[in-house]
Amino acid sequence: MTPHRLLLALLLVATAARADEGMWTFDQFPSQKVADKYGFAPSREWLDRVRLSSARMAEGCSASFVSPTGLVMFNHHCAEECIGQLSTRARNYEVTGFWARTQADEVRCPALEIDQLTDLSDVTEPVTRATAGLSGPAWENAQKGVVADLENRCAGGQDEVRCEVVSLYQGGRYGLYRYRRYQDVRLVFAPEAAIAYFGGDPDNFMFPRYDLDVSFVRVYQGGQPARTDSYFRWSSAGPREGELTFISGNPGSTERDWTVAQLEYERDVALPDRLLLLAELRGVLTEFARRGPEQKRISNNLLAGVENSLKARRGMFEALVDRSFFATKVAAEQELRARVKADAELEKECGGAWDAIARALDQQREIRKSLWYVGFARGFDSDLFRAALELVRAAEERTKDNGVRLEEYSDARLPQMKAHLLSSAPVYRELEILRLTFSLTKLRATLGPDDPFVRKVLGRKSPRELATALVTGTRLTTDGAGRSLRRTLWERGRTAVDASTDPMIRFARLVDPEARAVRKHFEDDIASVLKKNDELIARARFRIYGTGTYPDATFTPRLSYGSVEGYTENGHRVEPFTTIGGAFARATGRDPFRLPDSWIRARSRLDASTPFNFCTTNDIVGGNSGSPVIDRKGEIVGLAFDGNIQSLGGDYGFDPAVNRAVAIDSRAILEALEKVYRADRLVRELRPSPTTTAR
């Protein structure tokens, strides 16, 4: 991060959209700004087609439709869970890759869901009207009630529909997003992990890169490939240096509009706590993977995620401890507060918001340990425990009125929870014992062995003894019998759950009252204050700076614009493209710089000059993985899979000089499919055709 370059961009929120900054909602995209810089103004028709051609993985990645018969493209690292779930001890698709030579060979992913945004509307008025004049628990309950009602009426009881009320501009605006859910998702193609993640953790968040981080799945309806009339066509030319590019995806979260107090809490408390936890967990998982090839296989996806999170959060932490960068955030807040104070009416309405947030965070600091390990149940890290807790809570929550439930148990959200609970995704008991032992150990170490809740949970057992007894004793597995038991408990509700003798269900019932109490204290007395006062600050921003800015990321569909450009790092020019030939030059034959055998065999057939990866000035963050990179014609020119190391401070600010999105060139994808994998059926489906593109 180069904070001196951030000063101009961050000092006034009203002008934050200069350069190529911004992850814009589709209903407020700045087409004229794009036209002023690049000579192209996306029309409403163009934007709607791009939105409908884009998709979201419910598990945290972005995706896109790339054929009229339901073909979806995203990253290999987004498909890793599916790939791992379909693999076995004897057939490891992480090592061999996967290619369905016929449609009949396409295999259903046990727990993958693809969502398509079909409609969005502004619901700011009913949400803010419901909470007007309220505070504390009354404010929190009123907002939960109106959100649950809006989502429920939107979904209309349809399992194939997902509706979400989304807070934008820190509560300055609320949107209602309606998605079509595709739950029958089948794997079509995935390369070997050795080329998808070439360079491993050392190259992660770096550029130059040489990764084929791509996978394809197909969505089905009624047992047949879904008809997807809106989809991206493939560019025959690929990207060029200086060319205008758009990235359509679902950036996870940013905190660019946070107050200084919120950023200080992140810098001084939240990030250090999380970094230490991730570092310890990485060590535990690394040791587990060394026990044998099967242990390595079943823990690989989890370890990769931990390493990715650890590196990302280090970059975030480094941005916040940079004094020059942090000074820009302080200056921006001081300027806004001074303008609020100069307006007597605005000062009366919003002037106390910053101090209220600071006081709430002081309270959060005091309870953060019990909030994390008990209230958020992070002291019980186990898929089997999570299933048990969801069953226990669903049985109770469904006896309540929709508007007063825990928010994830509203009628509109229950179909997704049920689908996940009843999936056939494999659960590995050895890994479950390891994870639960680690988290119970952290629970005891953090709260103390004499803490009443810790003593209640552990009794006379050690963390490993308790974890082993729970995991080996439960019948809540994901095989046929286990799913049947889960379904019975879900459908029969509280009577069946209360009567259950399953040890994991009984343990979840033991934990739940205290977990609910801690969470309720946080939501009623802290979160309600944070959200209400965030809303007040957002109103002040709108009054002073106008509404022509982009909101912080919320893992909802956004569109960014930029161009293919290199950058300067440590006085050296970094060119925007790498080539396939460069991958062979970088290979050492040893992990993580080992090319798979399929690439070694195909070397003579490959055009070494084919562009492989490239970088752009598009503003993206985590969650954008799998986003299509398109040109002004709305054609695929690349697939975003990462950012460079300088972009890791992007949660808090954007530096157009060095922040870069990293993508796979569309030409490299076709070159590999044709000449390495002989995936002719897939290539024919992707090949450019003379049909109309998104305009």
Account of the 3D structure:
The protein is α+β, with helices and mostly antiparallel strands. Helix content is 49%, strand content 15%. The strands form three sheets. Strands 1, 2, 3, 4, 5, 6, 7, 8, 9, 10 and 11 form an eleven-stranded antiparallel β-sheet that branches. A hairpin with a 5-residue loop joins strand 2 (61-65) and strand 3. Helix 1 (3-11) packs parallel to helix 12, helix 6 packs antiparallel against helix 7 and helix 15 (383-397) crosses helix 22. The model is unreliable at 1-17 and 691-695 (pLDDT under 50).
Give a brief outline of the structure.
This protein is of the alpha+beta class and 695 residues long. Helix content is 49%, strand content 15%. The strands form 3 sheets. Strands 1, 2, 3, 4, 5, 6, 7, 8, 9, 10 and 11 form an 11-stranded antiparallel β-sheet that branches. Strands 12, 13, 14, 17, 18, 19, 20 and 21 form an 8-stranded mixed β-sheet that branches. A two-stranded antiparallel ribbon has the order 15-16.
Q: Topology, pairings included?
A:
Layout: H1 3-11, H2 31-38, H3 44-53, E1 54-57, E2 61-65, E3 71-74, H4 76-86, H5 93-96, E4 98-99, E5 107-108, E6 114-122, H6 124-131, H7 136-155, E7 161-168, E8 173-182, E9 184-190, H8 193-196, H9 200-203, E10 215-221, E11 224-225, E12 233-234, E13 244-249, H10 260-289, H11 293-321, H12 323-341, H13 344-350, H14 353-375, H15 383-397, H16 414-421, H17 429-447, H18 452-458, H19 463-473, H20 480-492, H21 494-499, H22 503-545, E14 558-563, E15 567-569, E16 572-574, E17 577-579, H23 580-586, H24 597-602, E18 611-616, E19 628-630, E20 635-643, E21 661-665, H25 666-675, H26 680-686
Parallel strand pairs: 12-20
Antiparallel strand pairs: 1-2, 1-6, 2-3, 3-10, 4-9, 5-9, 6-8, 7-8, 9-10, 10-11, 13-14, 13-19, 15-16, 17-18, 18-21, 19-20, 20-21
